[in-house]
Design goal:
Length: about 300
């Protein structure tokens, strides 16, 4: 942008307008930013008129946490899919394998690490069989300590010095085949325009329509829209530099699952603080579904055909 356009841009911003190159996203400022720090951060990120290099987004690593054993699954059937919890989780993991392969087929440099918390041997055999179908490098690691918080903390800590995009995922998310590719491409586009790392949660939650009510920007992507968010679970895609820079927001995830201190490990007390520093987005429609309960499903999403494809 030349100097004349920069001066005109500054003048127009006072009236709520902004000059952008045609293919770039153009966000108008919200009139009142009180208690809306996350949305203010989004606007500030997009107010730059520079194009940024995004070399450190070339590599993508998927970190999947699993724990499928008799203690967790015995006699339990999913209320959504009506199959045993073991089959339910294995099919969700299969959908992630298909999404990873789709990303690899589209030229993304990708790998998968499974952080396994003492799954039964027959389940580990099934996981190995699934991973044998992968078109990328993969590894199954037994977590150092058992417990939900311990594995959560370990896979976040593992990411700190990786210099890569990291998708942190739980074993009960059902993915569309293009999930990884679409999140990565959108991430790179935003990073190129803003120079800011972001956080992507793969689905909206019903609560965004019933409890939070914060205003959102909605951007048009190639295949879907992307909505700014200020709340997410511990399943999300971001960059390892974000984990390293804001480690104080990840440290207490070790308390998840510990009755006396679990409130300290909740998203509200940990990773949701990231939205005060970097923009957050979720896709519409979803690219993955938290297939845990009716309440955890994204609104207006028919997950059943996707479930049948994951057999």
């Amino acid at each position: 942008m030349n100097e004349a356009l920069r001066i005109l841009d500054r003048l127009l911003k006072k009236r709520g307008y902004s000059i952008k190159r045609h293919p770039q996203y153009n966000l108008l400022p919200l009139k009142n930013f009180n208690n809306l720090e996350a949305q203010k951060k989004v606007y500030e990120s997009f107010s730059s008129n520079k194009d940024f290099e995004c070399d450190n987004t070339d590599k993508i690593e998927i970190y999947l946490r699993t724990c499928i054993n008799e203690k967790r699954t015995r006699g339990i059937h999913s209320e959504l899919t009506k199959v045993s919890l073991e089959e339910h989780l294995i099919r969700c993991i299969h959908s992630l394998v298909l999404a990873v392969n789709h990303a690899a087929d589209n030229g993304l440099k990708i790998s998968l690490v499974i952080f396994d918390d003492r799954s039964d041997q027959d389940v580990l055999d099934k996981l190995n069989q699934l991973c044998d179908k992968l078109k990328c490098e993969w590894l199954i690691k037994t977590t150092k300590e058992t417990g939900q918080g311990a594995s959560l903390h370990e896979h976040f800590a593992y990411a700190k010095d990786r210099e890569a995009l990291i998708y942190f995922c739980e074993d009960d998310y059902l993915h569309v085949s293009s999930a990884i590719s679409e999140m990565v491409y959108f991430y790179r586009k935003v990073y190129k325009e803003t120079g800011s790392h972001i956080l992507i949660h793969p689905q909206e939650h019903e609560l965004i329509y019933s409890q939070y009510y914060y205003p959102s920007y909605i951007l048009r992507g190639e295949n879907r829209r992307w909505r700014t968010i200020s709340n997410a679970t511990h399943t999300f895609l971001t960059h390892s530099n974000v984990v390293k820079q804001y480690w104080q927001y990840f440290e207490n995830t070790k308390y998840v699952g510990i009755k006396e201190k679990r409130h300290l490990g909740s998203e509200k007390k940990t990773t949701n603080y990231l939205f005060n520093h970097i923009p957050g987005f979720s896709p519409i429609p979803a690219v993955a579904v938290h297939l845990q309960s009716e309440e955890s499903l994204p609104p207006f999403f028919d997950w059943k055909p996707l479930w049948e494809q994951s057999k």
